[in-house]
Design a protein that fits this description.
Number of strands: 10
Distance between the termini: 36 Å
Helix content: under 10%
Shape: elongated
């Protein structure tokens, strides 16, 4: 905003590539396929059969996806500067806005077929879990820069104070087919009538951020920089 470069605006964005993992398996009965779960009524580990020799054949698929990205804008104002034979220093105040988004989704589905008392039957079970968090906060901090010849060392310490808005959706269903008739019931194996639904929560959160940068200016408009950055929400 001024020729002395004492005030200005900076904006930033970061994002991690979407991370996904998956699993799938099918069996005509051998090998045995079973989906593990924690029995809420007993507190013990259990399993639901998907394929078993002479009884069931079936398949199961599971997928998980995670995303994380954020953005921010800051007003930067120099509050002090000094220059000496051993180098020059500048100090600035920072104030602005910070946004962070994180989301996770997991889907599990299985299908089994078999024969009961001479009647073919089939069971299809699906569970879906989706959770997301959005942080909105006021970003406050200080920054300093030290230069000596072509070398530069910069640091900044910030903390964003604001609200973390959390939401979750849980769904599940079980479809049973027997005698050519299909009946669909709410609730799967992990998503039951006791936890199916949509949930929201808002909590105060603080997101600290510490950045250290070291650089070397090898041309009038070019500088090589190595940096270390750490941040994360604390509730």
């Amino acid at each position: 905003f001024d020729p002395q470069h004492k005030s200005g605006i900076e904006a930033s964005f970061f994002g991690l590539e979407q991370a996904s993992t998956g699993f799938s398996a099918s069996s005509a009965g051998t090998p045995i396929l079973a989906q593990p779960f924690l029995d809420a009524s007993t507190g013990l580990q259990g399993s639901s059969l998907i394929a078993f020799p002479g009884l069931l054949s079936g398949s199961v698929t599971a997928s998980e996806t995670s995303r994380l990205y954020g953005a921010g804008a800051l007003y930067r104002r120099e509050i002090g500067a000094s220059s000496a034979s051993w180098g020059a220093q500048r100090f600035s105040l920072l104030a602005g806005y910070r946004f962070l988004h994180a989301s996770d989704r997991m889907d599990i589905s299985s299908a089994s077929t078999g024969t009961l008392f001479g009647t073919p039957f089939g069971v299809a079970v699906s569970d879906s879990f989706h959770a997301g968090s959005n942080f909105h906060g006021l970003d406050l901090g200080v920054a300093g820069e030290y230069t000596r010849g072509p070398w530069m060392l910069e640091w900044r310490a910030k903390v964003a104070l604001g609200a973390n808005l959390n939401d979750a959706q849980i769904n599940g269903s079980t479809a049973i087919t027997a005698g050519g008739v299909t009946m669909t019931l709410p609730g799967g194996l992990l998503a039951l009538s006791s936890n199916i639904g949509s949930y929201t929560q808002t909590r105060f959160a603080a997101v600290p951020d510490l950045v250290l940068k070291a650089g070397y200016q090898f041309a009038p408009a070019w500088r090589v920089v190595a940096s270390y950055d750490t941040n994360g929400p604390n509730y």
